[in-house]
Structure formats: structure tokens, C-alpha cells
Amino acid sequence: MTHERRRRPRREVDVQVRLSAAGRALDGHLHDVCRDAALVEADEALELEQVVELSVPLPGLGAPLDVRGRVIRVSPGDRRAHAMAVLFDDLPSGHAARIDFFVSLYDHEHAPADSGDASLSA
């Protein structure tokens, strides 16, 4: 059994993102997102605690979110060489609400079906 340390629900996604850090720009892949953080994969790794800006397009929610955070973990990635967990810093409430809405859409799409049998009567 796997125990997750996440405080908030997350949603897996499959979109390209743009990372900016220390005067350089990288293309990356957004693996998952929640209100607090994102997991991004890129060919180059950023340093732990490095401040990074992300441009995150969430499907169906209009313009990309431009967020700022810091790298809190670097590990091998699935699609690209490096996976980096980015913890958001001072996320504007409007951005947090958009992310929560995006995650909740996924939760509703994947909710278990009602197991009750409507054909039974009392």
C-alpha cells in the first residue's frame, strides 16, 4: 500500500509547460498538478530550492496560469530525463481556485458509479 504525503488532491495531466529559472527558459512536460505544487519533467534539471516560474496551460480553463515556485525534489523522470516537484509560492487566490476546479473536474469524471440497484423495491 502506498501512503502519499500530499495534503490536497492532484490531477494527472499531459501538457507542455514553459519553465524559467536563473535567466534561462526550458520546455517541459506537466505530469500532475494540485493547488500546492506541480510535477514537471524536463531534459535539464534545476537545482533544489531554485526559484522557477511556470506557464501552465490547464486544458479547458483558458489562458495559461503563470505561477512562481521553488524546486523541492529532483528525481528521474518518465518521459524526460528529470522530474522536478515545484512547490508554489504565494499562489494568487484566483489561480488556486482555477486549479481546484480543474482537479475537481477530474474527480467527478472518475468518481465510482453508484453500486445501488434501482430496480429493487421495498
How would you portray this structure in words?
It is a single chain. The protein has 122 residues and is mainly beta. It has one domain (11-108): predicted glycosyltransferase like domains (Thrombin, subunit H, Beta Barrel), CATH 2.40.10.220. Helix content is 14%, strand content 43%. The protein contains 1 helix and 6 strands. It has one helix at 93-109; strands spanning 11-21, 24-33, 37-42, 51-56, 65-76, 82-88. Strands 1-2-3-6-5-4 form a 6-stranded antiparallel barrel. The radius of gyration is 17 Å and the shape is globular. The protein starts with 10 loop residues before the first strand and ends in a 13-residue tail after the last helix. The model is unreliable at 110-122 (pLDDT under 50).
